[in-house]
Automatic annotation (TrEMBL):
PANTHER family: CHROMOSOMAL REPLICATION INITIATOR PROTEIN DNAA. Keywords: DNA replication. Residues 113-205 form the Chromosomal replication initiator protein DnaA ATPAse domain. It comes from Streptococcus infantis SK1302. Belongs to the DnaA family. InterPro entries: Chromosome_initiator_DnaA-like, DnaA_dom, DnaA_N_sf, P-loop_NTPase. The keyword Cell inner membrane does not apply. This is Chromosomal replication initiator protein DnaA. It holds the Pfam family Bac_DnaA.
Amino acid sequence: MKEKQFWNRLLELAHDKLTQSVYDFYILDAKLVKVEETTATIFLPRDEMQIFWERNINGMLLAAGFEIYDTEIKAHYVFTKVEEAASQVDLHSESTNNYQQNLSTIPYSETGLKEKYTFDNFVQGNGNVWAKSAALAVSEDPGLTYNPLFIYGGPGLGKTHLLNALGNEILKKSPNARVKYIPAESFINEFLEHLRLNDMENLKNLS
C-alpha cells in the first residue's frame, strides 16, 4: 500500500514541476519495481532517462520518501549504471561550460533558422508525435537529452519545421546559446569546396 502511495506522490510532484512534454517523455513510462528498506528500485526503459532522473527527480523522490515512509528513500535504476552515468554528467557539464565560455554568440541572422517555425504552429499527427516530444525534451535540456537527436522521415512530415522550432525554442530560453541550422546540401557543398582547396582544418574551425 505504501509503495503505491509513494509512487503516486512522486508522479504528482513531477507532474506539478515539469512541463507536460517533459513529463510524458521522461516520467510516463517509468515503473516502480519495489521499495525495499530505504531503496526504491525504478525501471527506466531508456538509458538516457537516468541522467534526467538523477538531475531533476531525486529531490522529489526524497520528498515523497519522507512524506510516505518518514525516512530517506534512495533510487536504484534497473539496467543502468548509476555511478558511471553520474560521473559522466559532471564531466560533461564542466567541459561544456568551459568550452562555451570561450565562444562568442551567433547573431540570429547567421543562425540559419527561420523565425516562423515554432512548436506552437507545428501540425502534430500520429506520425510525428514522438519526434515533437523528443525535440521539446531536447529544448528543455540541450546537450544532455538525445545527443545527438536524429529525426528520420519522409518529405513533408515536419523535419525542417521541428529542427527550426528546436533552435528557436533554445534561443528563446537562452539568448546567448550558440545555435546553427545547416541544411545537408549546404554542408556537403562547403565540405567539397574545402576538400578541393585542401583546407579541411579551416572547415573544422567554422562556427
